[in-house]
Amino acid sequence: MTRLSPCLRVLLLTCPVLLMACRDTQTAPDAGTPPAVAWDGTSTPIEEKGDWIDRGVFAPCEFTPPLETQLDCDTPALFDLSECNLGALSKAERHGIYQTELRPTSGEYPWGGAGILLPEDGGAGTLNFLPLTRQQFDDQGMFLANIFTTTRGVVTKYALAGCDAPERNRITGCYAFCSNGVLVEKGTFDAERMLWGRGEAESSGGLNLVSESFVGLGFPADVYVTKNHAYVVSIQLKNYMPSGGLTVFDVSDRSHPVLKKVISLPGDGYWNAAWAKDDVLYIATRASGVILYDISNPGAPAYIRSVPSGAPLDVHTLFVEGNRLYAMALRPAQTLIFDITSPREPVLLNRFTFTSEEFVTSYPHDAFAYEGRLYINHTDIGFLVTDPTDPMQVKELGRYHYNRQYSHASAVGTFAGRTIAFEGSEQEGSHLRVLDVTDPAHIQLIAEHRLRPTTSIHNMILKGTRLYVAWYQEGVRVFDVANPTRPKEIAYFNTYRETDPGRLGFVYEGAIGMRVPGDGYVYAVDSARGLLIFNEP
């Protein structure tokens, strides 16, 4: 079965809308906790459970019609709420941002979650930032619904009915999903308000905020730091939203960044990633491929040109290692290899892709080059280990794949003589995986770290034995991975505040991009707050 990425399902609006859970058994971060004990290289493989773990039925209610029935999902009378504790809903918070885990009646992996935004002023709310067509939340109960027509003309509709409020900031209930007037999925839900993790403060472990700089262009997505300047790129989520582009800050004084330049190009408002080599900044864009800017004057980037030439190419991410630039494109799906021995004159060496009969729409989302191998997060077909030594004959050496995978980001290093990859998907419940990739033909899962099942990892940076993760609503998380079989969270900063202007109420927002250049600071991008600079803990 084919499917689009979680991000594209939201950003391209080709799919219907986009919990409570305890943390795993690992201890909470504590500045006084000693670092993990060095690893001796031995490990025991663990079972792959996937991103979504079936926690069972969430509420004693039901949308009564059988699947495949022709009907209108937005019909409150079709919800059987007779066993519900409806009185508890009167005590639930009726404003804020809830992320919702859906559990189909079948018990199978759901096709997503539902982000609910209910404004504090009682105004119109959204479901994955699509307007609610029904919004009832009062002492009589909770009924929410929306309708959307995809770019392919499919009319989709979600309807949710509240059943109980076990806690003030948590609601359980039932849902139904219709496509072109046919009931195609139903089940129960567990919605948790996106406050900081249970019992957490704003920060811990010495990760302290040094400065915060608002970014006015679009939806901030990534940052690159060089020459005492931070280059923040932004995307345009929808055509009616502000265009993205490049925002440049002088960060010579990390406590007081200075805005130096704002750049956008007509007809190209989706700038998703940045990297630099010497005096050239490379930017991944949806309409222009890779754009080159001269940053010999770092506060005033000057346009050089875009590559490759020819038809427009949607490049999503970049990775630079030595004299090579790897560019990962979504449409058409391909990885491009450039020789950047002369940074201003990239030479395209090859375009290549990996396919699967099952997932024909899979594409490379990100990649990580390390010690002669290129590790590709190839979304649906998994995490690939390749040999790009000969750019004209890139060889697949192995892959790690599990049901409903959406491999999204990774970082790779050597620990006790073993090659270890830290990998994460991007979807509800995505979490940190630790993979032994020493033998690419026999990749083994040796550890994992989970947070809430309704949040998602976005990006990660490995510096020595510390792993920094931009974890959307969970903020910035720092792990001691000296023993990669037992990643230990040692610091965090909760960047996400539901009251920040610009919050959209869906799973893919919060801490999104990050760099740790080794200058004593951590540079993170939050999708609403902009550029955040922390001291390196």
Quick structural gist:
With 537 residues, the protein is mainly β.
Report on the architecture of this protein.
Strand 7 and strand 8 (141-149) form a beta hairpin. The strands form 9 sheets. Strands 6-5-4-3-11-10-9-8-7 form a 9-stranded antiparallel beta sheet, with no helix packed on it. A 5-stranded antiparallel beta sheet has the order 12-37-36-35-34, with no helix packed on it. It has a 4-stranded antiparallel beta sheet with strand order 13-40-39-38, with no helix packed on it. The protein is an all-beta fold. The protein folds into 2 domains: 62-193, Lipocalin (Beta Barrel), CATH 2.40.128; 203-535, Methylamine Dehydrogenase, Chain H, CATH 2.130.10.10. It is globular. The model is unreliable at 1-34 (pLDDT under 50). Helix content is 1%, strand content 46%.
Kindly list the characteristics that best describe this protein:
single chain, 537 residues, mainly beta, Lipocalin, Methylamine Dehydrogenase, Chain H, five-stranded antiparallel sheet, 46% strand, globular, signal, Haem_d1_sf, LVIVD, Lipoprotein
* Total helical elements: 1
Q: What's the CATH topology name of the largest domain? A: Methylamine Dehydrogenase, Chain H
CATH level 1 name of the largest domain: Mainly Beta
How widely separated are the two ends? 44 Å
Q: Give me the CATH architecture of the largest domain, please.
A: 7 Propeller
Taking Cα atoms only, what radius of gyration do you get, to the nearest Å? 23 Å
Structural class designation: mainly beta
Strand content: over 45%
Low-confidence stretches: 1-34
Helix content: under 10%
- Overall spatial form: globular
Keywords: Signal
Protein name: Lipoprotein
InterPro entries: Haem_d1_sf, LVIVD
Organism: Corallococcus aberystwythensis
